[in-house]
Amino acid sequence: GAVVSQHPSRVICKSGTSVKIECRSLDFQATTMFWYRQFPKQSLMLMATSNEGSKATYEQGVEKDKFLINHASLTLSTLTVTSAHPEDSSFYICSAPPGGQGRSYNEQFFGPGTRLTVL
Amino acid sequence: AQKITQTQPGMFVQEKEAVTLDCTYDTSDPSYGLFWYKQPSSGEMIFLIYQGSYDQQNATEGRYSLNFQKARKSANLVISASQLGDSAMYFCAMRERPSSGAGSYQLTFGKGTKLSVIP
C-alpha cells in the first residue's frame, strides 16, 4: 500500500522558535496533501490543504502567517510553525489521497504524525 | 450542526465478542464516502474500511464490517471476535465532494470512541 512519512516524529522546542515538519508521499505523487492537528483526547481537525504549485488553503481560524505551508514538489509538503508557543503543542498529522494514479480516491493515507511540545 | 457524530466516548468489550461502534452523519451531498480509522496510542491513523454512498452492499474487511443505513444516515462499525490489540480510539470520518469542484477531498472526523477490550 501507499506510504506517507513524516519527519520528525517528535520535537521539543523553546517558545519563540520555529519548527518545520515534513510530509512525504513515498510511492505515489500527491498534488494535494492535508494537514491536521489533534489535541490530547480530541479529534483530528483539518488545518489546511496543501496544493502543489499553488498557495495552501487554510481552514477558518487557522493563522496563515503562523502555520506556513509549502508544497514544493509532488512528494513533499512542509508545515512550519513559526514563533511557536506552548498552546501550539499538539499532534500534527498529514495525509494524502493517491487518487488518479491507478488508485481510488477512496484511499487516503496518513503519516505517522509529529508530536510537538513547546516549552 | 456536527457532520459526524459518535455518541459513545468509551466502549468496553470482552475478548472474542463482537462490538458495534456508532456513527451518524449529516450531509446534503448525494455523493459522499464514509471511513473508519483506528488510532492506537502511538498516534498513527490506520485505515479500516470505506463505504461509498452509492455502494449497494455493506463494506467488509476481514473482522470489520460497516452497517450502512443510508436512510438513517448511519454507518456503524462492527468488529467481530474482538482481540486485545483492538483496544484503541476509533474515528468515523466523511468525505464530501469539494464545493470548489477542485480535487481537495478532505475528511471530517467525529470525536472518536475509545474501545477497550477486556481479557
Short characterization:
The complex is a heterodimer of chains A (119) and B (119). Chain A is mainly β and 119 residues long.
How would you describe the overall organization of this protein?
The complex is a heterodimer of chains A (119) and B (119). Chain A is built from no helices and eleven strands. Chain A is mostly beta strands and 119 residues long. In chain A, strands 2, 4, 5, 6, 9, 10 and 11 form a seven-stranded mixed β-sheet that branches. Chain A has a four-stranded antiparallel β-sheet with strand order 1-3-8-7, with no helix packed on it. The radius of gyration of chain A is 14 Å and the shape is globular. By secondary structure, chain B is mainly β. Helices cover 0% and strands 50% of the residues of chain B. Chain B is built from no helices and twelve strands. Chain B has strands spanning 4-5, 10-14, 19-21, 24-25, 32-39, 46-52, 60-61, 64-69, 74-79, 88-96, 107-109, 113-118. In chain B, the strands form three sheets. In chain B, strands 2, 5, 6, 10, 11 and 12 form a six-stranded mixed β-sheet that branches. Chain B has a four-stranded antiparallel β-sheet with strand order 3-9-8-7, with no helix packed on it. Chain B is globular, with a radius of gyration of 14 Å. The relative contact order of chain B is 0.33. Classes of the chains: A mainly beta (119), B mainly beta (119).
Topology, pairings included?
The complex is a heterodimer of chains A (119) and B (119).
Chain A: E1 4-7, E2 10-13, E3 19-25, E4 32-38, E5 44-51, E6 57-58, E7 67-73, E8 76-81, E9 90-96, E10 109-110, E11 114-118
Chain B: E1 4-5, E2 10-14, E3 19-21, E4 24-25, E5 32-39, E6 46-52, E7 60-61, E8 64-69, E9 74-79, E10 88-96, E11 107-109, E12 113-118
Parallel strand pairs in B: 2-12
Antiparallel strand pairs in B: 1-4, 3-9, 5-6, 5-10, 7-8, 8-9, 10-11, 10-12
